[in-house]
Amino acid sequence: MKRKDEDIEKAVANGYMKADAEFLKEEAVSGSCCVTVLIKKGDLIVSNAGDCQAVLSVSGAAEALTSDHRPSREDERERIENLLYVLYAEWLY
Q: Would residue 16 count as lying in a domain?
């Protein structure tokens, strides 16, 4: 990964973390999700958090650019459990 790519990745992650901190201040019990798309010099840079998905239309057909972060996905469940969160009925506690 190039240095500039690492800077973009860090900036997006930092933005997601700041947004999450603001939501947590509200003490809401609902979740949130986010998709970010950056077009830079002809490159499409896509990220997501939560159960939302970026989709691109290619010749009229939908092509997924991201994967939902859902506890029903085995790899996501394992990632969450490794962070010591408790999963209950597909929700995080």
A: yes
Q: In sequence order, which residues have a C-beta less than 8 Å from that of residue 86 and are 6 or more positions away?
A: 92, 93
For residue 52, the one-letter residue type is C
Looking at the 3D structure of the chain, how many domains does it have? Answer: 1
Question: Is residue 89 domain-resident?
Answer: no
Asked if residue 58 belongs to a domain, the reply is yes
Nearest Cα neighbor of 48 from 39, 40, 36, 57 is 36
Phi, psi of 62 (to 5 degrees): -75, 130
Whether residue 34 is contained in a domain is answered as yes
Q: What is the pLDDT of residues 37-85, one digit of tens each?
A: 999 888 889 998 888 899 999 999 999 999 888 878 888 888 777 776 5
State the pTM of this model. 0.64
Q: What is the pLDDT of residue 46?
A: 92
